[in-house]
Structures are given as C-alpha cells and as structure tokens.
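## Example record

The block below lists the input lines for one assembly entry, exactly as stored, with component labels intact.
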Amino acid sequence: MAEARQIAIDVRDAVKRYGDFTALKRISLSIHDNEFFTLLGPSGCGKTTLLRMIAGFEDVTEGGIFLYGKEIEDLPPNRRPVNTVFQNYALFPHMTVLENVMFPLEMLGKGREARARAGEMLELVQLSQFANRKPNQLSGGQQQRVALARALAPQPKVLLLDEPLSALDLKLRKAMQIELKHIQRETGITFIFVTHDQEEALTMSDRIAVMSAGELQQLGTPGEIYEYPRNMFVADFIGETNLLEVSVDAFAEGRAVCHLGGGHEMKVDAVEGIGVGSKVHLSVRPERLFLTDEKIDPDALHATVLENVFVGTNIMTIVDLDDGPNFTIRAANSDRGNARVFPEGSPVFVNGDRGAARLLVD
Amino acid sequence: MASNTDVRNYPGFVGITILCLVILYAPLIVVTVYSFNASASITVWEGVSLRWYADVFTGPDSEKFKTAAVNSFSIAIMAATTATVIATCAATAMVRGGRFRGRTLSFGLISLPLMVPEIVTAVATLIFFNAIGFTRGYTTILAAHIAFCIPFAYLPIAARMQGIEGTYEQAAQDLYATKVQAFRYVLLPLMGPGIISGFLLAFIISLDDFIITNFVKGAGVETLPTAIFGSVKQGIKPNIMAISTMLLGVSVVMVTISYFVSKKDNTQ
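Predicted structure tokens for the full assembly:
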C-alpha cells in the first residue's frame, strides 16, 4: 500500500455560490483510488453540495473537479462514470427490483448482459429472492441494498453515497456500516460517503474530511482525526471532549506545561506553532482520564466528584478541579481495570494517559 | 373513539345529509326509473319495459340520435386525446420547469377557463370563429372542445406530477439515462395514472358539453346533448329518458375508472 496511489477524484479550489451565499469556500482535496472516503460535517456544511457537484447535479462556480485526471465539469450526470446512492434511495416505484438494477445497464446499451449482471449484483447484496418484488414491498434496509446494487451494477469509477443509512434504525445501520465496508473492499470501487454521524465516519472510512461552514477543517485517517484534532471544531465534533482554555507557561522535555486555572497544571505534548505565553485551547478526551483516591502519579490533579451518570456501557463522572474547571471522565462499565465509582463529594485524583490531552493549533 | 369533534355527533347531521342526497339524486333516479316505463306518458307508470330503449335504436328518431352519438363520441375521443397531450406538456413545463418568469401567470392562464362563465366562453369562441371566417360545423366543435378540455385534463396531471419527487429523474440521469430517456422510462410511467385521469375527465366534459357546442355547431350538425335538447323542445318523450340514462351510465363508468386509476398510486 506504500506505492503512490492513483487519485480518483481531485477537487481543485472548488467554490460554490448560490447568489450571495457561498456554500463551498474554495475546497481542495484528493480522493485516492479504491478508498473509502467520508465527507463528515453538520448539516449545511456543504458536504452534500460537494457530492452533488461530483455527481453533476450542481455546477461548479469556480475551480475544477477531475476524475482520474480528466476534467468532468462540463459532462452532464449521465455522461459521468459516477453513480449515486440517494438518501431516499429513489428506487423507481413502477419497476421491480431486478428492473431497477438492470436500468443503468440498459441505458448504457448493455441490455444483453443486463439480466445476468443485475442478478450478480442482487446476490452481492443478498436480495436475489426479492428480484421480482416492487420496491414498496421491501423494508427500508432492503430498499437501501437495492439502491446500492443498482448504483454498483454499471461498475462506476466512483460511488457516491449521500447519507444512505440515515433512515435506518440503529441496529440495522450498524450492520449496514460493516456490510458497506465489505462491499467496498470486495468491489474495489472508490466510495465517497457523506454523513453527519461521526461514529459512522470513524467506523467505515479510510480517510475523513471534516467540513464545517463550507470549509475543510481537517483531513486524515479516523485515528489522526480523533487523536490529533487540529481545531476546536474538529475536537468538539468528533467524539466527546473536555475543551479548556489554557495558557502555556513553560516547556519541559518536549512537553508544554499548561495552566488550567486555579493553580492546576497539565503536561501536554508540545505542538509546533504554540509558544510560551500563548492562550490556546486544550482538548482532553474523557475516556483517557481515570480517577484514583491516592496520588500515585505526581502530575495527577486534585478534584471533587460532582456527579456520576450511568450510560450503560460507560459511567460518566463529572469532577470539579478545586478552584479550576470541571472535567468529564468516562470509564468502561466493567469490574476490570481502573473503573471504580467514587460517591459524590469524595475527593479524588484525576490521572491521564500521555495522549489524553491535545493542544489545538487554531 | 366517538369524540365530540366527530361530525356525526353534530345536531341535524342525519337530516341534512339525507336532504342533500335527495336533492342531488332524486331527479336522476326519477329519470332512470321512468326510462323503464311501459307507458308513452312521462308521468303515468304502467309497468317495466325496455320499450323506449328499443325505440332509441329503432324508432323514428334513431337515425338522428345515432349520428349525434357518433359525433359526440368521436369528438370526445379526439378532443380528450389532444387536450391530454397538450396538458401533459404544460404540466411538465409548469412543475418541472423550475421558477421561470411568468410561471404564476401561466398557471392562471391555464386554469382561468374553469372560472369563466361557460356562456362567455361560448360567445367568445363563436365570435372568434366568425372573425377568422371559419364555417361552423364538426371542425369548429372539435376545436372548441380541445380548447376547453385542456384545463380539465391539466389539473389531475399536474397534481400527479407534483407528487413525483425530482430525485427519480435525477437518479435516472445519474444512471446514464439522457433527459429524453429519463422522461420516457421514469417520469411518464409514474405520471400514467394522472394522464389517464385527465383524459377521462376531459372525455366526460367534452361528451356532456351543451352550451359551447350549441353556439359553435353549424346547422345540421348535432351532438348528443344538442340532439336531446332539440327533441325536448318538441315535448319530452320517454325515449329521451332512455338516452339520458345511457349517457348517465357512460359518465358513471368513466368517473369510476378515473377514481380507481388515480387511487392506484405507484410512487410509493
């Protein structure tokens, strides 16, 4: 996997304006061949607009979009070797499942092989026995698979998925996430997936582009984005975090000493661009903190338990650093490890892993 | 479950309902029942008979009614077909054309004829044909019928089209269909029930029309409604009731088909 990978979709300085409103503010990103790529962001961040620009439903105000090096801006949707799985599936209600899947092949003039190929696709999504049903006789999850089979049948160079799982219930959604990932591996087709669900993005993607307000906030693997958020938006949007305003007092052994207020200090990996005296934000992941009743680690912070919240898999504890900010700490609900529930009002020490806290560059 | 807001609990509900139904249907029932009367009188009941139905087909007036029926049905079929094609195009432009300039005005222009008193349309059409020097006859009736059938065909077609989401066509185009193919293979089949409804409605409207037809028809050319009116002027004979009952039957059949077709929703 180390060799330079081909670029499937290259978005160069793409801008989208609707009258006075700028939906996309000069976005550039490259999506690799055979990659599961996710555009993640809250609604209105421009992710769907970008997807529709790649599909050909929206034109590009400025900049360009390239598919394997070829500019596709002037091609209408039916001339782009790119297919979409729509949010509401858009299965043709007057056609059977099989006819739906055969449709793109027939439009491409491949009528002869259409039936066999459509059959294969239905097998891939495990719906062969429903070939002669109408879409409205299927459940939401089954319709979703038909939409997927239909979009994959013509073997597009890139498959676009516009929040395809949002209408499914939680269990089915989880199962489909895994299945989608398998299908992507099996077919080797580049997937571009749009979602506002950060967990879904982390589960499925090779790389994620986090977007907000028409701008690209951060691009990286799920691990990079989660562990090294670049700014407050990303840290807050992906996972749960304690966001604190801190000042950097000094550096020691490559670590920045951050003042949290109330005389509390925390040592955090130094980040380029943040010097002594800077007031910056610190993101501390609650699941990487743990509580002890004795001060084992010399850097542990003294605090008082405010509240324990039971969330099933986890127990969330909110503590008050004496004269300092509040912290949320998340512990697995298990008898193993350090998980231990301290009653409200008890004095505790807050300990963290080395990577628990990250300084945010901007 | 029988809550206070149930209309059936309102005082006088049953009485008013029965009154309305009687006013609406009593005349039709009287005509239908008396069309099976054996008597030559229209008021005295003498027993059940199909005599007057036979009279319509074989009696002295049968030739006149046959010609009128042929005219009526051929005009209704052609007018409804043409109006449906035009209305389908209009609905496509109005519903799928986005926001173009004059869209509201266009909608007004299409539906205005429904509000205009028919007598006004009739006089206007007559004056128009005179002005351009058309000889009145079969062709003028057909032209007038096409024109006034368009809004009637338009309404169910446009209503249907509004219920079809734009993503179907987008999906079709995304799946390599050209615009024409997307229309032919996806939009048109989905519009089918609306188009059939529109056609049937236009057909009934054309078949039933009296006022406009009476103005624009030439001497000697009759449709069923004008022929019936002509006969009635010379006194009501029971054979008129038989014809009316048959015409009523055709209307009921058409409306029933239209109802079931429009209920067959294939967009879900």
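The domain at 53-264 of chain B is CATH 1.10.3720.10 (MetI-like fold). Chain B has eleven helices and no strands.
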